[in-house]
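Lab notebook page, bench 4
Experiment: in silico fold of construct C2
Operator: M.H.
Input chain length: 126 residues
Purpose: comparison with the prior construct
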Amino acid sequence: MAKILVVDDSPALLELYDFTLSSEGYKVETAKDGVEGLKKVEEFKPDLVLLDILMPNKDGFETLKEMRANKETKETPVLLLTNVDEQSKVEEGLKLGATDYIVKFQQTPNQVVEEIRQVLQKSGKE
């Protein structure tokens, strides 16, 4: 089964997605900010990254830029997790190479799982 890394500064959200995705059979790792996320991307080599935009230490945009600059992670699908339903932020993330985005308060965990399935199927990882 596919490996998913969830990078978010909310412990409750990390726990929720860890439980939900693990229950669906995915191997899950979590990180509390972009610095830890980049380290885990190198070690865990996820098939997909759920990446929060607004985080301390290193935000999602900076994390995404560094992933795309690395030849080993430049093709890894990244779904941006955000509570910011601001079109300019979404467009910025997509221009930086995000696969898609999820507005947290508009999606249930099951809807996020379905979005992940679709992205993994397109990338041949599911």
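Observations: The chain has one domain: 3-122. The two ends are 7 Å apart (CA to CA).
Next step: discuss at group meeting.
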